[in-house]
Amino acid sequence: MKVKTKGALLRELNQPWQIEEIEIGDPKAHEIRIRMEAAGMCHSDHHLMTGGIPMGGFPILGGHEGAGVVEALGEGVTDFEVGDHVVLSFIPSCGKCKSCKAGVANLCDFGAMLLQGEAVSDHTFRIHTTDGQPVYPMTLLGTFSPYMVVHEASAVKIDKDIPFEVAALCGCGIPTGYGSSTRSGDVRPGEDVAIVGVGGVGTAALQGAVIAGARNVFAIDPVEWKREQALKFGATQAFATVEEAMNEIGNATEWGMCQKVIVTVGEVFGKDVDTWLSITAKNGTCVLTGMGNMMDNQVTLNLAMLTLLQKNLQGSIFGGANPKLDIPLLLSMYKVGKLNIADMITREYTLDQINEGYTDMLEGRNIRGVIRYTDADH
């Protein structure tokens, strides 16, 4: 039985989200249907609008951060029961491919299908418009809808006492940022760290660096309000630009600069890479977590200095996280007060307010906005 519901769709590039009626099919083998309760508004979904992340076609159903309740099970599902609370992981984790077995579940082979729109179970579409047109869900999820059908590899069971709006952010932003510091960046006690861009992912990276024992954590962001928030989350100093930060970082580190630089800006441009490496220490690591346009292959980089100072330029997807392991661990840290997720949620919106929410994000008014679904949505 198909579920008629609504979703936030993109029908062409550089146009606002449109709330339209859609139909979601029953879960098939190894799939579950979820009644969504909350969805995070990540910058990556804005990249869908600009074309920076190209999907397999239009219309696109946005949203890749979310949490909800399992409502129905497909054949062969054994890890979930109806009524379970779950977080949706934007990268599936099958547990069986070479990457998963090698301990890099964030590079699961299922990830190759994330932008195609077809379900991994049988390569058909679960979501259609009312006139039968296939809909391409962001990373095979589409959390900008009150209902979803997803493969069990994309869901992670969580404790039922965790607020859905908090849980939703652990589908992408929290593990991506936290892991960028603690896994991809491997921040060690006493190291000096710079976080470039302190939105949702950057604030999680900042907390990861603090918890890992960093000595100085320098936050860099052009928005004054975000710099103020960064200090509340544990940054030792905050600056508007790398250029403004340069002398202060140099003085604080005896000009050794930062062993780790975590780049979590909303959009990465190749021309800025050498700037970020300029505040990276000898033998240090610059972690690129923010997304650039997939068509951008031009990078400004002093290759001689990269070699002579033995610096590392490290890409990072999902913070190097193992979704099935790390999402529950991070939420357990939240429960005992070690990880502050609740204060990262700046505003809540209805699905109908999605364009307002993204305007607030782009204009620097949010660390993270969250869509909350109500009984009226269901």
Automatic annotation (TrEMBL):
GO terms for cellular component: cytosol. It holds the Pfam family ADH_zinc_N. Gene3D superfamilies: Medium-chain alcohol dehydrogenases, catalytic domain (3.90.180.10), NAD(P)-binding Rossmann-like Domain (3.40.50.720). One of its GO terms (molecular function) is S-(hydroxymethyl)glutathione dehydrogenase [NAD(P)+] activity. GO terms for biological process: formaldehyde catabolic process. Residues 12-371 form the Enoyl reductase (ER) domain. InterPro entries: ADH-like_C, ADH-like_N, ADH_Zn_actinomycetes, ADH_Zn_CS, ER, GroES-like_sf, NAD(P)-bd_dom_sf. Its cofactor is Zn(2+). It comes from the Bacteria. It catalyses: a secondary alcohol + NAD(+) = a ketone + NADH + H(+); a primary alcohol + NAD(+) = an aldehyde + NADH + H(+). Keywords: Metal-binding, NAD, Oxidoreductase, Zinc. SMART domains: PKS_ER. Transmembrane segments: none annotated. Its EC number is 1.1.1.1. Belongs to the zinc-containing alcohol dehydrogenase family. PANTHER family: ALCOHOL DEHYDROGENASE, ALCOHOL DEHYDROGENASE CLASS-3. This is alcohol dehydrogenase. It comes from Gordonia malaquae NBRC 108250.
